[in-house]
């Protein structure tokens, strides 16, 4: 009997909560180091993964990794102390391994490999989810990277269930494991399915049943109830949260602590203000209002007050006007 089956069939729910890990997902153009900082302040998140660093035909300088992951300058942790793994995306074993070697010198908390990005431009250049058509190529890529980095740096991966269909899902997962990946996040949809519900959590369980490395479930976990259904269907307790955490920054805490982990709209205000201050420090003025509206758009899934705030800012384009409307008196 595989070890993971024994674990989930014999431990109590309290023990499950004591050992479960919650990862914060990368979201290109949205969930960056600014939001990693803010969301990990709330609590409940055990590890973060950055947006991908694109690798093509060169070895990148240190600043390319540090731009995506400024946490590398602080022990590869957020200001709240949560470890941050840096994600690489590419398809050439030589340049991917050379860049992984360069990145390893910066001592990241881990190096993650992207086999899930559905973007057409990425797939057209043989990166992300397109590689799920070629398990042998995946295996060679992971193997080359694992051989290039020190053994103390974890090598992990994230995949979708396939490109057009799920026929190679288990074969691809095995290819990653046999290449040297130590952990695998499974976004439980294919590239073609995009982000449309449902997420096929049963496939996470099928993949875990074939592997000895830990598998983490990802996709369509918006609420505590979704988390419990995911565990029931997949048999996997560890999860990666993305859009659900943007909609409800307390979601990880609520999964671990129940209602005591809830965050009211009033309690959220210092985090919104902290986010806005970081955005003003780190981004160009022309993009600042967009970043705030982008997050409020997600927050209105969980907070009626966010709907009011979002509507009041829809036509705001100047940072000083947003300050006056959203943070007057703070």
Q: How is this structure best described in words?
A:
The chain has 330 residues and is of the alpha/beta class. It folds into two domains: 3-257, Aldolase class I (TIM Barrel); 265-326, Bacteriocin As-48, Chain A. The chain contains 16 helices and eight strands. α3 links the parallel β1 and β2 (47-54). The chain starts with a helix and ends with a helix.
Write a concise synopsis of the structure shown.
With 330 residues, the chain is of the alpha/beta class. The chain contains 16 helices and eight strands. Helix content is 48%, strand content 12%.
Distance between the termini: 58 Å
Please give the number of β-strands: 8
β-strand amount: 5-15%
Q: What multimeric state do the chains show?
A: single chain
Derived structural class: alpha/beta
CATH topology of the largest domain: TIM Barrel
Radius of gyration over all CA atoms, rounded: 20 Å
Unreliable segments of 5+ consecutive residues: 1-15
Whole-number tally of structural domains: 2
Compute the number of helices.
16
How helix-rich are the residues, as a percent range?
40-55%
CATH superfamily placement of the largest domain: Aldolase class I
Spatially, the strands of the biggest sheet line up as 1-2-3-4-5-6-7-8
Largest sheet: 8 strands, parallel, barrel
What's the shape?
globular
CATH architecture verdict of the largest domain: Alpha-Beta Barrel
Q: What CATH first level of the largest domain would be assigned? A: Alpha Beta
User: Mean pLDDT score, rounded?
Assistant: 92
Order of helices and strands: HHEHEHEHEHHEHEHEHEHHHHHH
